[in-house]
Design brief:
This protein has helices at residues 17-29, 38-46, 58-81, 97-101, 115-124, 169-185, 199-203, 226-231, 250-263; strands at residues 86-90, 108-114, 131-136, 156-160, 190-197, 236-241, 268-275. By secondary structure, the chain is an alpha/beta fold. It has one domain: 3-Layer(aba) Sandwich (Rossmann fold). Helix 1 (17-29) crosses helix 2 and helix 1 packs across helix 3. The protein is globular.
């Protein structure tokens, strides 16, 4: 069987290797987090990827795992509350979250990704009846929403882990509004969970040791979780996780707290929002 080639990935898709490395080495490097992703280890071996490319960036490696654990919890909570719901993961990379959390067969799961990543996923991730890939067209970044199996009244959760900061601001804002519009048109309840970089992080993204080893950089910044509710009226903030960066080692803790002292805002945050169905 031919080995999938990850050396030809585009600038942003290439960044999927950073969290893959983090998940692969988590049991050895961060045993206190009690996180193990056997699929990540298998996938990394299958594509011949050496996580050592990023392993010495302790902050990014630990942060990726802490972030993954938060998203795992959000997804598991939604699935528990909506056993027949729809889950959509934007920019999944080589993460097989359905396998890691034990996704029930009654839940429909969509991984929305660029065509080159979908081809890679299809070569290394086992297919399941209730899980499928959906290609995102870079020229029409929100067109894929109309292709979702999102029936009227069906609750949906859309997650974007490690994605928003790579979007152009106008593109990110358009995506949020398109999701809200789609939910209202059904009508159906919508939950949105994502992580966001601050303006400081965006300005200095190329100083991140892991990102500097790729060709990508950050583009979209938000100052506070409430900015999302202003961009897409109707979404209500229901949970904020602003302590992820402070749990990623001494340097990250120092930068996070210094930024908060100077700006009264988080340097980085993840948050969950909800739009209730309007009948």
């Amino acid at each position: 069987m031919d080995r999938p080639d990850v050396t030809t990935l585009g600038a942003v898709p290439e960044t999927l290797l950073i969290p893959l490395a983090a998940r692969m080495i988590a049991p050895e490097r961060h045993p206190d987090l009690d996180f193990r992703d056997e699929e990540a280890e298998r996938i990394g071996t299958r594509i011949g990827f050496d996580p050592g490319r990023f392993a010495d960036d302790t902050g990014s490696m630990r942060g990726s795992v802490v972030r993954a654990m938060w998203f795992d919890r959000v997804v598991s909570a939604f699935v528990g509350a909506h056993p027949n719901g729809l889950c959509v993961s934007i920019g999944s990379g080589l993460d097989d979250r359905p396998a890691r959390i034990g996704l029930p067969e009654s839940v429909a799961w969509i991984d929305a990704e660029f065509a080159e990543v979908v081809r890679l996923r299809e070569g290394v991730i086992a297919s399941r009846a209730n899980v499928r890939n959906l290609v995102i067209d870079g020229l029409e970044p929100a067109a894929w929403i109309d292709k979702l199996p999102w029936d009227a009244g069906r609750p949906a959760l859309v997650v974007a882990e490690g994605v928003t900061m790579y979007l152009a601001p106008a593109e990110g804002e358009a995506l949020l509004r398109a999701l809200v519009e789609a939910a209202r048109a059904r009508p159906a309840s919508l939950e949105w969970a994502a992580d966001f970089a601050s303006p400081f992080m965006v300005r200095h993204s190329r100083r991140n040791p892991s990102l500097a080893r790729t060709r990508a950089s950050f583009a979209w910044a938000l100052r506070r979780p409430e900015d999302v509710t202003a961009i897409a009226p109707g979404l209500a903030l229901i949970e904020e996780a602003d302590d992820i960066s402070s749990r990623c080692g001494a340097l990250a803790w120092t930068m996070s707290h210094a930024h908060r002292l100077c700006t009264w805002r988080s340097i980085y945050f993840a948050a969950r929002y909800r739009l209730d169905a309007i009948h």
